[in-house]
């Protein structure tokens, strides 16, 4: 059986990313530079033999996946599916506000003076999730149990489906905090937080029901695509 591999991409840069507003379940489209970056990524990935492609149900992820596939020589033949379980965290009433506001509120809920202190103390994803849940006045945010279940089962089901069909490589477009959280679910020692660049690729393998990580947040495919564009 062929090895099962997921190329997990953070979506391209959006309007809210650019103006630094909270964007979880709310959505904005890719900017012109965001589209250009993903087209470069698609060019850099065009030699990867993708068996399937997936994205979350957020418009920015769907747009990113379609742009990548449009650069792939076999793009029209690659089955593309949408899975809402791999969407971003829900930030409830904090959605749409400035990032600085949310990351000012969350540390205070956890009795830290600021964001840097919260991160320095190695605050867990569980604690951050519970703080967002407590800060959400609309009662829309997910509990840690709900969030961890949907993210884990979403990615596991994608990998299991590919493995069951003989293995191979799959493109999976998701979101920054969700990808970082997945890495922590795979390995509790993973300390990646919000540092994954738009269009970066996290390379995972899956075997016998277990994920292993080959690379995190790589931008090498974007750079490769830029070089191809120059030729």
From TrEMBL:
Chain residues that bind substrate: 10-17, 60
Alphabetized InterPro entries for the sequence: His_Pase_superF_clade-1, His_PPase_superfam, Phosphoglycerate_Mutase
Domain of life: Bacteria
GO terms assigned for molecular function: fructose-2,6-bisphosphate 2-phosphatase activity
Coiled coil (UniProt feature): none
Keyword annotations of the record: Hydrolase
GO biological process, one term: regulation of pentose-phosphate shunt
Any single GO CC term annotated in Swiss-Prot or TrEMBL for this entry: cytosol
Record keyword Transit peptide present: no
Any single Pfam family the record assigns to this protein: His_Phos_1
Active site: 11, 88
Feature type site, description Transition state stabilizer: 175
Name of the protein in its database record: Phosphoglycerate mutase
Species of provenance: Tetragenococcus muriaticus 3MR10-3
């Amino acid at each position: 059986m062929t090895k099962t591999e997921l190329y997990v991409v953070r979506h391209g840069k959006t309007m809210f990313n650019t103006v630094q507003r909270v964007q979880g379940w709310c959505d904005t489209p890719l900017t012109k530079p965001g589209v250009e970056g993903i087209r470069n990524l698609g060019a850099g990935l065009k030699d990867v033999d993708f068996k399937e492609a997936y994205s979350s149900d957020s418009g920015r992820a769907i747009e990113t996946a379609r742009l990548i596939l449009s650069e792939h020589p076999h793009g029209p033949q690659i089955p593309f599916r949408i899975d809402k379980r791999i969407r971003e965290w829900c930030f409830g009433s904090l959605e749409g506000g400035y990032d600085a506001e949310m990351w000012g509120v969350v540390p205070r809920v956890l009795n830290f003076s600021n964001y840097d202190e919260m991160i320095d103390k190695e605050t867990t994803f569980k604690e951050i999730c519970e703080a967002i849940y407590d800060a959400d006045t609309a009662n829309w945010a997910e509990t840690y149990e709900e969030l961890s279940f949907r993210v884990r089962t979403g990615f596991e089901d994608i990998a299991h489906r590919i493995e069951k069909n003989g293995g191979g490589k799959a493109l999976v477009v998701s979101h920054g905090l969700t990808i970082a959280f997945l890495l922590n679910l795979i390995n509790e020692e993973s300390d990646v937080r919000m540092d994954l660049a738009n269009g970066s690729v996290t390379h995972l393998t899956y075997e016998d029901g277990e994920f292993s990580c080959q690379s995190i947040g790589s931008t090498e495919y974007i750079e490769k695509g830029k070089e191809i564009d120059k030729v």
